[in-house]
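Q: How do we represent a protein-ligand complex in a form that can be generated token by token?
A: Start from the inputs.
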Amino acid sequence: MFVYADNAATTRIDPDVVKAMMPAFGELYGNPSTIYSKGREAKEAVNKAREQVAKAINCRPAEVYFTSCGTESDNWAIRGIVKHYAAKKGKHIITTNIEHHAVFECLKALEKEGFEVTYLPVNEEGFVTAQQVKEAIRPDTVLITVMTANNEIGSIQPIEEIAKTAKENGIFMHTDAVQAVGHIPVDVQKMGVDLLSLSGHKFHAPKGVGALYVRRGVLPDNLLNGGGQERGRRPGTENIAGILGLGAAIEKATSSLERDMEYVSALRDRLIDGILKNIPQCKINTPSHHRLPGTVNVSVKHIEGESMLLLLDMNGICATSGSACASGDLDPSHVLLAIGLPHEIAHGSVRFSFCAENTVEEIDYILDVFPKIAQRLREMSPLWEEAMKNDI
Ligand SMILES: *Cc1c(COP(=O)(O)O)cnc(C)c1O
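Then emit the structure tokens for the protein with pyridoxal-5'-phosphate bound:
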């Protein structure tokens, strides 16, 4: 059996999305910046996709800017705001210590350029509070950036309350909603944010296309300089195929959102229950509330995450140990350390992430294979032997 359980890393492109993209590989080849009908056709198609995105997140089409990915959206939002407003407002930024690398590394670079960043600690379930944000605000705070949902453990932050605090203090608010869009309701009016990042490949559109919501009147500096595309704010000839895919995917995901959330949550809960029942000494790192429907992060004590992944792969199961960008380096995930896991337990962690394409049979297959893998590795692990001795 083959089970794709890494939907937080990327998703399969939906066949309906492929269909929506096909015109861009055929007759829809005009450059949207040209004035003849071939170009206008392409421009109309891009603007239709813009309307689909706007409808899905409840904003005006003119507030949606297409980008090349979630990483670009995050970098543009953060860098664009602080560069434009630092002279007037100051050089202090507030964030959390569990952000995605796209936010984290951007802030690290800004620190080298003279900006100051406060990294708020999360609690053991992976949450920050609006009160923490409020206490961190200074007269020179220019931007608050807090992710909507975490990619490793699935915790969902109180964005509405944090944005309210930001607004009361006249500070811009950005959220990285890349894991949220297409998976939980995302309404920029209700959330009250000024900027929001999203990425197509996390909800069954292709890789290499994203969008940034920018509230009307908010003016981030451009990241790129060039032509007049995207109302002069994001130059570069449009990725028409990707944009059409993003539009179709966000519309489809939103139309079945409630049903999918219920279905995927049931898969998640079945896996968590089964793991707790069948694997002794493990810890679920995903919180028990305010969490994504499809994310399960588990630490299996006294064994290595990487060896579990290899054996899962040999059994046809795709999962990950930390975020895709982090695997390959030896440090345990900063998110798992942030929720207070000791290094050795953080190292023994696996993330499964599901979507509506996954089935109950797949969950049961994981529950058949995974406990055997854990047991086999523990039998070979000196750490486990030691732990068993100490228990007696
Ligand atoms: C995947 C992801 C990103 C990066 O998006 P790309 O389109 O892959 O650049 C940013 N933030 C979060 C939370 C993500 O999960």
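Residues 250 and 257 are 10 Å apart (CA to CA). Residues 69-71, 74, 100, 102, 147, 151, 176, 178-179, 199, 201-202, 210 surround pyridoxal-5'-phosphate (CB under 6 Å).
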